[in-house]
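Tokens for chain A. Residues wanted.
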């Protein structure tokens, strides 16, 4: 995904402030996307202040997001895992809602590709943690608000850890858990496709709530709402 790749390079400092980006033609060839897709990605980066355009000269890297704001602590206890999921509830539900309003055909293609990659990972018998995170990241990108993408990227390690934990807690039911999660993912995608903002928000909220329940209770049918979770200590 071109937008995500350039965004991450700026945040990670691989692309320095003031550095000139390659031409649209070069970016199109590198990421194997059309010129209109390149222009759209650059427009989104420009709108977020991550790149600047100079007439007749091209696009240059702007000031990166404030790094201290993007740093989150590691998950050291079950309580931290619970808080991470609760944080994601607000962030990702909002991103899904906005994605349903702002998405275009390219976004749907990226989300479907991420969903398919996760499906393939499940069929191979792997945990699919990277593919799962990529799916959620694709939805954040579809919101067209780089802050959603930035925040989710900043908790990548914590999110991947909790995803791995969910899949490892019960090996005998891991495939069943993943397939249920895929059904929840599908509900989010379908709402985004039909541009149902409320439906997308609710579907993502339900998915993250169930993911947390699966970690603490091993449940898949929603009998234990998140509001009844107790505070866990280390």
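Reply:
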């Amino acid at each position: 995904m071109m937008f995500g790749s350039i965004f991450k390079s700026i945040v990670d400092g691989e692309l320095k402030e003031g550095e000139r980006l390659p031409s649209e033609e070069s970016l199109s060839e590198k990421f194997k996307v059309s010129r209109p897709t390149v222009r759209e990605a650059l427009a989104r980066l420009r709108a977020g202040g991550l790149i600047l355009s100079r007439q007749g000269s091209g696009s240059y890297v702007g000031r990166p997001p404030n790094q201290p704001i993007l740093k989150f602590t590691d998950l050291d206890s079950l309580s931290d895992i619970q808080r991470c999921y609760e944080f994601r509830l607000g962030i990702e539900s909002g991103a899904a809602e906005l994605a349903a309003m702002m998405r275009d055909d390219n976004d749907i293609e990226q989300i479907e590709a991420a969903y398919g990659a996760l499906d393939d990972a499940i069929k191979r018998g792997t945990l699919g943690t990277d593919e799962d995170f990529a799916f959620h990241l694709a939805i954040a990108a579809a919101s067209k608000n780089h802050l959603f993408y930035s925040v989710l990227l900043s908790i990548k390690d914590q999110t991947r850890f909790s995803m791995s934990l969910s899949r490892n807690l019960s090996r005998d039911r891991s495939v069943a858990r993943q397939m249920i999660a895929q059904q929840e993912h599908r509900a989010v995608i379908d709402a985004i496709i039909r541009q149902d903002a409320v439906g997308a928000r609710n579907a993502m909220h339900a998915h993250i709530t169930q993911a947390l329940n699966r970690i603490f209770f091993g449940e898949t049918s929603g009998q234990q709402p998140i509001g009844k979770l107790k505070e866990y200590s280390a």
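The chain has two domains: 2-61, 69-228. The chain has ten helices and two strands.
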